[in-house]
Every structure is written in C-alpha cells, then in structure tokens.
Amino acid sequence: MIGRFYKDKKVLITGVTGFKGSWLATWLILLKAKVYGIGYQPNKNKKLFYNLGLQKKIKVNMIDVRDFKKLEKRINQIKPSIIFHLAAQPLIYESYKNPYDTIDINAKGTLNIMEIVRKSKFVKSVIIVTSDKCYESNNSTKGFKESDRLGGIDPYSVSKANAELIVKAYNKSFFENKRNRSTGISTGRAGNVIGGGDWSSNRLIPDAIRSFLNKKSIILRNPNFNRPWQHVLEPLKGYLILALKQYYNPKKYSGAWNFGTMPNSVTSVQKIVEYMIGFWGSGKMILKKSKLYEQTNLQLNIAKARKKIKWKPTYNIKRSVKFTVDWYKDVTTSKKSAFETTIDQIKRYMNDSKIS
C-alpha cells in the first residue's frame, strides 16, 4: 500500500536531522521516495542523522523554520507534494530552560509552514506533528480524544497547543470550505516515543543507554511516572498512512489524529528501566524526585485512527523496549552499521504490521 504510493513522490521533512525525522527519512528511502529535508544547526540530537549517513542519501538544507523567506524559497524550489513538519524543540526539560525559544520555534515554525502551503499549488498532503501534551489535563481515565480541549501549563505543552490552534485556524479559514479542496492538512498527536539512535539529554532511554555503556547507575527523576511509551515506528506508520489517505481525499481525512498506544498500556519509568536492564544484561538504578511539572495523565484515545484509517499499534511496550535495546546493542557493542540496522528494523516492523 504505502510502498506503491510513496515511490518517486517528492516528500519534504522538516526537522529531518532530529530523531523522528531521521527514522522517517530512512523509511521513505526504503520506499523509494524522493526525499528532501530541512534541518537545523545546531541540532543537539543530530547524531543519528549522521550515523545513518542521511546527509549523503537525501537533499538537505540547514534552515531555521522561523526564517519565512528562506523556508518559502526552498519549498518553492523543491515543490514537494507531501510535507511532514517535524521541526520543533522537542524536550520538556529544555522548555523550562528556554521557554521563549520553545514557544517561538514550535508555534512560528508551524505558522510558516501553513502560510507557505496556503500560497502554494503543488502541496497535496501535509502532516503537522505535535504532541500528546497539547491537551489540557482533564483527569480522564479513558484517554484524550481529538475533540478534547487543548491547553497546558508548561512552556512545551503550550507551544504544542498553539501549533494545533494555528493549523485548525488555517484549515477552517482557507481550506475546509473550498469546493475543490486539493490539499489535505492534519495534525498527528503522539508522545513518549522510543527507538534506537535517540541521544537526547534528559531523556529516559538515551540516559539509560549511556549509563550502560559507561557502567554507571541510572538516575530516575520520577520512577513512578506512568507514560504511554511506544516505538517511534508506530506513530510514523500513522503519519505515512494518513498522508496517503488525505492525498486522495483531503476533505474526509484532514483534521486532528491521535497515534497513541493501546488502552491501559501506560507503564512506569521504573518498569521501562527494569525491562532495559534485563534486555541489556546488566545495569543498576538510583531513584530521585524532580521538581519540574509534567502532565501525568497522557493516555490517548486512538479509536478514531483505528476506525477511519485502520491504524493501530503493532508492538506492546515490552516488545518496543526490546526492539530499542537491540538497536543500541547492535550499533554500539556489535559495531553494526546504523543504517543497515535501522533498515532491517523497519523491514521487520512492516512485516509484523502486515503493511507493504
């Protein structure tokens, strides 16, 4: 399905030098798409991008997504039919240190993409990637639905809620009521993704891997926090399917979409690390408390995606953690090629997901 669709399509990924962007670019290379990227210097998590050798495999330009003129010029040169907008400041911890930049990047970058798409005639499908943290906490046990109120009281959550509102305003004002609508625009909400090659600071998986490699104890700042962890390929599958669906039927599929985990699958930070220690074969942990606020109820209701585009998660949390640890072990201790390891995992995931 997605293989035939993406072959030879011009696809632009903003934030391509980041963690999700690198995995998405690699998947699209496997699907034989014509992949273009917008990256940013300095990107603190660009290690995976260069480990994969993507700078030699796709056409990439380093542009700050807040620079409207440069971004517009490059997009008009490429003329992509599909855009995945992933460029963002993605870390909650960083948002407390740099709240202005977090909100500026995440809101203005989205605004610029929407304005460029509004003025273009060649873009057919746009996925704006936001976060499960765009919702205002409502203490629900059923999970957030796409229609629930947006909000947040920390800089990161507010930045993502802003991005969502910008997309909604453009959709309603300039696209929704067009008689012959030709551009599909959606937001994809997911969070707490894990997977090989993430080297961000103050993130559970990479911090744990660094501790394993350096033979140090893992410090957990909120061991009892429960999170709906998912492998990075799960939401990426959702983005790829959704971009295809709205390419052909923009009126039906444009909007907001949750790509979360199965119900009742939230797992504690401590349990994740226990799985990791088991799969790695060694490691110890130290429990501490953080004073920073993070939403504690982040389960997403995925009924809409399951019903309307037939998307659902493929792996449970334990399988996702094993898949992730296997990547790091293969690349860091067995010295296997990062690109071949990533391609192999994508192929296995596609086989397990029964998509082609």
Question: In sequence order, what are the helices and strands, one letter per element?
Answer: HEHEHEHEHHEHEEHEEEHHEEHEHHH
Mean residue pLDDT: 93
- Estimated structural class: alpha/beta
Strands, total number:
13
Rounded Rg: 19 Å
Strand neighbour order, sheet with most strands: 3-2-1-4-5-6-11
Task: Tell me the distance between the termini.
Answer: 5 Å
Low-confidence stretches: none
Sheet with the most strands, sense and barrel status: 7 strands, parallel
Structural overview:
- The chain has 356 residues and is α/β, with parallel strands linked by helices.
- It is built from 14 helices and 13 strands.
- It has helices at residues 2-6, 19-30, 47-51, 68-78, 92-97, 99-119, 155-175, 204-214, 233-248, 250-253, 269-280, 303-308, 317-333, 338-353, and strands at 10-14, 34-39, 59-62, 82-85, 125-129, 184-189, 193-194, 218-220, 226-227, 230-231, 255-258, 267-268, 285-287.
- Strands 3-2-1-4-5-6-11 form a seven-stranded parallel beta sheet, sandwiched between helices. A two-stranded parallel ribbon has the order 7-10.
- It is globular.
- It starts with a helix and ends with a helix.
- The mean pLDDT is 93.
